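Backbone-to-sequence.
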């Protein structure tokens, strides 16, 4: 199940505010302050630390089965998408990625597969990365890529007809549209992602 995307962005506070206005809950803030990584989680808000010159490594917002993360970068840069999978699905996807000669970085909490399309795929088996407090879902991502073949390769990797990720050709790699069920309106986020509301 598609559940996640991650950006690096100079617009960290603005991105958090954008998703909070759509009903997302801030669940994690980790940033480098005075040479050390520290947590600045709620109930702390930006007025508590805005002037501290914190370099945020990750801010996480959640709504239903959606988990979106972003961290500080000098320019807006799309990094990865994420799928929540069972252990059985994980094992099969891992084997197929090896057969496709895609690079795999296996970690304790998550595994990243590097695609030839300029972004990574996170495989996540831990259900605690989503809240499920409502039925909000990340229905589809439309990703701009520089080369053809993304849907075909993802269908091979996941061994299913890939409907949750579509692509269009362009001169950069980024998420153009995120189709979400469970938000009240459609808006463009500070990093250029058109977040599109669909009803049930």
């Amino acid at each position: 199940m598609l559940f996640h995307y991650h950006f690096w962005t100079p617009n960290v506070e603005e991105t958090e505010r954008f998703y909070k206005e759509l009903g997302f809950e801030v669940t994690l803030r980790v940033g480098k302050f005075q040479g050390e990584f520290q947590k600045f989680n709620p109930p702390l808000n930006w007025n508590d630390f805005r002037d501290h010159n914190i370099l945020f490594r990750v801010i996480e917002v959640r709504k239903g089965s959606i988990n979106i993360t972003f961290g500080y970068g000098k320019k807006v840069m799309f990094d990865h998408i994420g799928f929540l999978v069972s252990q059985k699905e994980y094992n099969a996807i891992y084997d197929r990625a090896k057969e496709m000669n895609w690079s795999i970085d296996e970690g304790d909490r998550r595994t990243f597969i590097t695609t030839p399309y300029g972004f990574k795929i996170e495989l996540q088996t831990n259900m605690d990365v989503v809240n499920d407090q409502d039925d909000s879902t990340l229905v589809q991502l439309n990703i701009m890529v520089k080369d053809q073949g993304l849907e075909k390769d993802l269908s091979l990797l996941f061994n299913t007809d890939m409907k949750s990720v579509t692509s269009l050709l362009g001169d950069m790699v980024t998420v153009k549209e995120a189709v979400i069920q469970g938000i009240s309106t459609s808006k463009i986020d500070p990093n250029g992602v058109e977040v599109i509301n669909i009803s049930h």
